[in-house]
C-alpha cells in the first residue's frame, strides 16, 4: 500500500470521507468525487482507496484529483483485498474528527457535511449519525426517497435502514476496531450495529444527504440473487450483535432481500394471563354466525401450546349461555370471570381484568379476534421480556385480508399505519415486513409486563371508549419504554374501526393531554404529510 | 337341515334389526355421517366466503393504493401549478403579450 498525498495539512479536519474504489465507470467515479469537492462545508479530507482496480482509467482520475486539491488523499493498494481491507486502509490514514462513508458510485448532496456539522454542534455527544437517502436510477434520476425514523434499534436488527449517509465519530471507530473481515457486502451493517452499541448518542438527520446509485449489481437493486454472500454476512452481523447485547435469539434471513428475523427465546415458565372483555356479542363473519368471545378464546388456544390463564371481564348484558360457553371454550386452562359494573368504559374493563389477573405478562385482547399465527404468544413474549420494551403489538387484518393495524403513527392524530392497504403491502421501504418501534400499538392484541402496566397507571379511565391504547403508548413513551410492532404475529380483528379525526370527547381529551407528543412521532418523518397513515411525502419544495 | 333353519333365523333377525335401525334413525334425524357432511359443508362455505371477502379486499386495497397515488399526483400538480403561476406572473410583469398567453395556459 502506498499513500499519495499532496501538501497534507498538519491539523485534523472536521470530516474524513472514506471511499474504497474498485473499478467504477469513469463518469460515475468523477460524479462521486465532484460531489465531495462541491461541498458547501470546506473542512474535510477525502480518502480514496484504490483496491487494485483492473481498469486503466481509475488511478489516473484519482491521482488527477489528488494533484488539484490538497484535501484529497489516494491510497493505492498493490493487491485486491476486498471492501473491508480497503476501507480499513482508508480508516488508517483518516485524521478527521468524524468519518463519513461514501461508496464509489454514489454522491453526496451539496450541503451534506454542513448539515452533519450543524447536528454535531447541536448534539455534542453525537457519536454516530445517519441521514435520509434516495436512489439514482439507471437513467440518472433521483427516485425512491427513504424518509427514515429516528433511532430504532429493533428495526435496525431487522434491516439496515440507516445505511447512507453514515458518519461516525473517529474515536468510536477506533474503539470498535474498524471494519471486520468476514463481513464483506454487509461490512457497513456490521459496523453500524457495533457502533450503535457503544455510541453515547445516535442522531438521525431528516434530510436526504445521499444519493445511492441503483445498478444491477448493487444491493440497492434489492435483488436477492445479486449478492447472496452480503445477506449471509448481514445475518451473521445481527446474530453477533444480539449475542453482544445478551439477547438470546435465533437470527434468520427474512422474507424480503436485506430483511432479517430475530426470534428471541422465551422463558418456559413465564406466567401469562389473557385478559379479554366482552359483552357476549355475536356477528356473522365469513358467512358464519360467530360468538365472538368464544371464537377468540378458541383461536388463542389453537395457536398456543403454553399454559394460559384467562380473565374474561363480562359486561352485565352478557347472557348465562355466553358465560357457560366461555367456561367450556377455555377447557383445562384457568379462567376467571369478572363481573363489570354497568357504566364501565372500555379502559376500565381492561383495568378490571388486569387487577384480577395473576400472570407476570398480560396479553390484552379484544373479544372479536381470530389469531392466525402459530405460537404467537412466544413471539410477543420474546419482546415483552426485554426491560426496555413497554408493549408489543401485532399485525391485524380486516376480515377481507386488508391491513387494519400496522402500529399507530402519531402525526397530528393517532392513525393506524397503512390501514386499508392490501395485506401483502410492504409499505415504505419494507416497514410492514419487519418488527420495529412504533408510537403505540393496538389493544386488540397487545402484550405488556404486569409491572409496566401498573407503573404507568394502566389504561386511563377518563378515555371512556376509544384511544385507551394510544394514551397507554404515550405514557410508556414518557417512561422511555419502547412500543414494538411485529408483522410476525397476525390476527383478524372484526371490531369497529375508530375514526381518529372524528370530534369525540375521547379525542378531545387525548389532544388536550398529549397534543404536542401527538405531533412529534420519532418514527415518522417531517418529510411526510402529517395526519395521513400512508407515508405520502410532503409537497415538493 | 338344522343349519339351514338357524341361517333363516339369523337372516330374519338381521332384517328385523336393520328395520329397527331405520326406525330409530327416522326418529332421531340425520346420522352422524350426515352431521359430519354438514360440518364439512359449513367449513367449505366458510372457506368460499373467506376467499370471496379476500377477493373484495384485494380490490379495496387497490383502491386505497390508487387514492394514495392520487394524493401524490395532486400534491405534485399543485406544486407544479404554483411554479407555473409564479413564472407566469414574472412573464406578465415583463411582457404583457407573453403574460396573456401564459395566463390563458394557467387558467385551464
Question: How would you sum up this structure, described in words?
Answer:
The complex is a heterodimer of chains A (541) and B (108). The model of chain A has no long low-confidence stretch (mean pLDDT 93). Chain A has two domains: 2-220, Spore Coat Polysaccharide Biosynthesis Protein SpsA, Chain A, CATH 3.90.550.10; 272-519, Spore Coat Polysaccharide Biosynthesis Protein SpsA, Chain A, CATH 3.90.550. Chain A is elongated and about 90 Å long. In chain A, helix 10 (320-330) links the parallel strand 16 (308-314) and strand 17. Chain A is an alpha/beta fold and 541 residues long. Chain A is 29% helix and 27% strand. In chain A, the strands form five sheets. In chain A, strands 1, 2, 3, 4, 5, 6, 7, 8, 9 and 10 form a ten-stranded mixed beta sheet that branches. With 108 residues, chain B is mainly α. Chain B has a domain at 32-106. Chain B has helices at 2-28, 32-94, 96-106. The N and C termini of chain B lie far apart (111 Å). The chains are: A alpha/beta (541), B mainly alpha (108).
Task: Give the helices and strands, then pairings.
The complex is a heterodimer of chains A (541) and B (108).
Chain A: E1 2-5, E2 15-21, H1 26-37, E3 44-50, H2 58-68, E4 72-76, H3 82-93, E5 98-101, E6 107-108, H4 112-122, E7 126-136, E8 142-146, H5 153-158, E9 166-169, H6 170-176, H7 187-198, E10 201-213, H8 228-245, E11 249-253, E12 260-264, E13 272-278, E14 282-285, E15 288-291, H9 292-302, E16 308-314, H10 320-330, E17 334-339, H11 346-356, E18 361-365, E19 369-371, H12 376-384, E20 389-397, E21 403-405, E22 408-410, E23 414-416, E24 436-437, E25 445-449, H13 450-455, H14 468-478, E26 482-493, H15 505-514
Parallel strand pairs in A: 2-3, 2-5, 3-4, 7-10, 13-16, 13-18, 16-17, 20-26
Antiparallel strand pairs in A: 1-4, 5-9, 6-10, 7-8, 7-9, 11-12, 14-15, 18-25, 19-26, 20-21, 20-25, 22-23, 24-26
Chain B: H1 2-28, H2 32-94, H3 96-106
Helix pairs in contact in B: 2-3
Amino acid at each position: 500500500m502506498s499513500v499519495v498525498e499532496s501538501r497534507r495539512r498538519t491539523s485534523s479536519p472536521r470530516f474524513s470521507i472514506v471511499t474504497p474504489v474498485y473499478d467504477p465507470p469513469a463518469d460515475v467515479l468523477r460524479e462521486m468525487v465532484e460531489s465531495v469537492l462541491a461541498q458547501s462545508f470546506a473542512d474535510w479530507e477525502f480518502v480514496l482507496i484504490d483496491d487494485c482496480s483492473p481498469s486503466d482509467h481509475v488511478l489516473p482520475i484519482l491521482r488527477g484529483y489528488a494533484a488539484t486539491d490538497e484535501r484529497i488523499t489516494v491510497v493505492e493498494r498493490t493487491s485486491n483485498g476486498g471492501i473491508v481491507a480497503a476501507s480499513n486502509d482508508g480508516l488508517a490514514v483518516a485524521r478527521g474528527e468524524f468519518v463519513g462513508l461514501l461508496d464509489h458510485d454514489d454522491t453526496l448532496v451539496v450541503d451534506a457535511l454542513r448539515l452533519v456539522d450543524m447536528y454535531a454542534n447541536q448534539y455534542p455527544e453525537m457519536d454516530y449519525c445517519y441521514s435520509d437517502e434516495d436512489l439514482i436510477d439507471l437513467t440518472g434520476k433521483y427516485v425512491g426517497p427513504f424518509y427514515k425514523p429516528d433511532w430504532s434499534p429493533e428495526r435496525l436488527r431487522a434491516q439496515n435502514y440507516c445505511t447512507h449517509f453514515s458518519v461516525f465519530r473517529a474515536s468510536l471507530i477506533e474503539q470498535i476496531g474498524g471494519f471486520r473481515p468476514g463481513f464483506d457486502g454487509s461490512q457497513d451493517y456490521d459496523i453500524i450495529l457495533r457502533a450503535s452499541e457503544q455510541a453515547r448518542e445516535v442522531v438521525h438527520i431528516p434530510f436526504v444527504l445521499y444519493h445511492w446509485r441503483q445498478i444491477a449489481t448493487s444491493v440497492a437493486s434489492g435483488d436477492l440473487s445479486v449478492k447472496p454472500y452480503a445477506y449471509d454476512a448481514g445475518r451473521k452481523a445481527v446474530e453477533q450483535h444480539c449475542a453482544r447485547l445478551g439477547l438470546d435469539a435465533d437470527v434468520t434471513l427474512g422474507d424480503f432481500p436485506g430483511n432479517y428475523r430475530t426470534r428471541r427465546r422465551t422463558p418456559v415458565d413465564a406466567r401469562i394471563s389473557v385478559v379479554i372483555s366482552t359483552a357476549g356479542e355475536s356477528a356473522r363473519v365469513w358467512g358464519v354466525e360467530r360468538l365472538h368471545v368464544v371464537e377468540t378464546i378458541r383461536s388463542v388456544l389453537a395457536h398456543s401450546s403454553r399454559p394460559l390463564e384467562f380473565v374474561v371481564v363480562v359486561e352485565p348484558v352478557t347472557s348465562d349461555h355466553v358465560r357457560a360457553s366461555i367456561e367450556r371454550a377455555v377447557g383445562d386452562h384457568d379462567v376467571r370471570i369478572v363481573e363489570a359494573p354497568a357504566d364501565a368504559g372500555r379502559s376500565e374493563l381492561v383495568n378490571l381484568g388486569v387487577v384480577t389477573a395473576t400472570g407476570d405478562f398480560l396479553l390484552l385482547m379484544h373479544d372479536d379476534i381470530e389469531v392466525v399465527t402459530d405460537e404467537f404468544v412466544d413471539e410477543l413474549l420474546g419482546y415483552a421480556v426485554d426491560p426496555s420494551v413497554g408493549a408489543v403489538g401485532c399485525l391485524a387484518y380486516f376480515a377481507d385480508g386488508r391491513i387494519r393495524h400496522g402500529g399507530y403513527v402519531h402525526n397530528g392524530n393517532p392513525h393506524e399505519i397503512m390501514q386499508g392497504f392490501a395485506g401483502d403491502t410492504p409499505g415504505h421501504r419494507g416497514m410492514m415486513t419487519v418488527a420495529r418501534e412504533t408510537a403505540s400499538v393496538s389493544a386488540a392484541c397487545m402484550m405488556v409486563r404486569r409491572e409496566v402496566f401498573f407503573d404507568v397507571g394502566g389504561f386511563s379511565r377518563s378515555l371512556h371508549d376509544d384511544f385507551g391504547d394510544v394514551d397507554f403508548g404515550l405514557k410508556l413513551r414518557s417512561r422511555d419504554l419502547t412500543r414494538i410492532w411485529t408483522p410476525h404475529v397476525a390476527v383478524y380483528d372484526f371490531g369497529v374501526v375508530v375514526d381518529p379525526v372524528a370530534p369525540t370527547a375521547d379525542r378531545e381529551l387525548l389532544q388536550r393531554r398529549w397534543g404536542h407528543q401527538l405531533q412529534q412521532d420519532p418514527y415518522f418523518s417531517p418529510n411526510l404529510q402529517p395526519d395521513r397513515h400512508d407515508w405520502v411525502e410532503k409537497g415538493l419544495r | 337341515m338344522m343349519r339351514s333353519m338357524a341361517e333363516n333365523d339369523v337372516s330374519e333377525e338381521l332384517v328385523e334389526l336393520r328395520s329397527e335401525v331405520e326406525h330409530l334413525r327416522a326418529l332421531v334425524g340425520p346420522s352422524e355421517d350426515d352431521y359430519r357432511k354438514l360440518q364439512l359443508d359449513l367449513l367449505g362455505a366458510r372457506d368460499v366466503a373467506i376467499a370471496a371477502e379476500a377477493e373484495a379486499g384485494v380490490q379495496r386495497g387497490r383502491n386505497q393504493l390508487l387514492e394514495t397515488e392520487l394524493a401524490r399526483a395532486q400534491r405534485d400538480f399543485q406544486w407544479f401549478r404554483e411554479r407555473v403561476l409564479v413564472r407566469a406572473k414574472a412573464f406578465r410583469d415583463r411582457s404583457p403579450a407573453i403574460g396573456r398567453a401564459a395566463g390563458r395556459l394557467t387558467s385551464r
